[in-house]
Design brief:
Distance between the termini: 18 Å
Number of strands: 5
Order of helices and strands: EEEHEHEHHH
Oligomer: single chain
Strand content: 15-25%
Radius of gyration: 14 Å
Shape: globular
CATH superfamily: YqgF/RNase H-like domain
């Protein structure tokens, strides 16, 4: 049985989302607050194992036109280290607009700015995972 987990990797926080049991939609799970590069890799590997992930989907930030940004390289370095720490496949998914969409959702729900930072990354990870699940489910049909 497939189980997907997604990470929205930021400089301060990493959003976590998991797929529903049927892999049709994503559920925001938690926000991990970064400590150090090595600790962060181990923590995400542990979270993925605890959630029973068979595939890890990482958001890859790119510029509006799809070209690589400075953040793309930093995130790719993190993803490469994560790939070495886990035994399951790690794939990248375009994360353009996912954080913006997450902010808009939380604002529309009336959530105050101070509280939003605790949820926005997990919601962005869910948006990343939804995009990936839609793509693989379309390919199956």
């Amino acid at each position: 049985m497939e189980r997907y987990i997604a990470f929205d990797i930021g400089d301060k926080r990493i959003g976590v989302a998991v797929s529903d049991p049927f892999n049709t939609y994503a559920l925001p799970s938690q926000t991990y607050w970064r400590k150090s590069f090595a600790q962060d890799i181990q923590a995400l590997a542990k979270i993925a194992a605890e959630k029973g992930a068979t595939t890890i989907v990482c958001g890859l930030p790119v510029n509006f036109d799809g070209s690589a940004a400075l953040q793309t390289q930093k995130t790719q370095k993190f993803i490469d280290a994560l790939k070495e720490a886990v035994t399951v496949p790690v794939v990248c998914e375009d994360e353009r607009f996912t954080t913006m969409m997450a902010h808009e959702t939380l604002i529309s729900e009336g959530m105050r700015r101070e509280k939003r930072k605790n949820y926005v990354d997990a919601l962005a990870a869910a948006n990343i995972l939804d995009g990936y699940l839609n793509k693989i489910n379309k390919a199956k049909n």
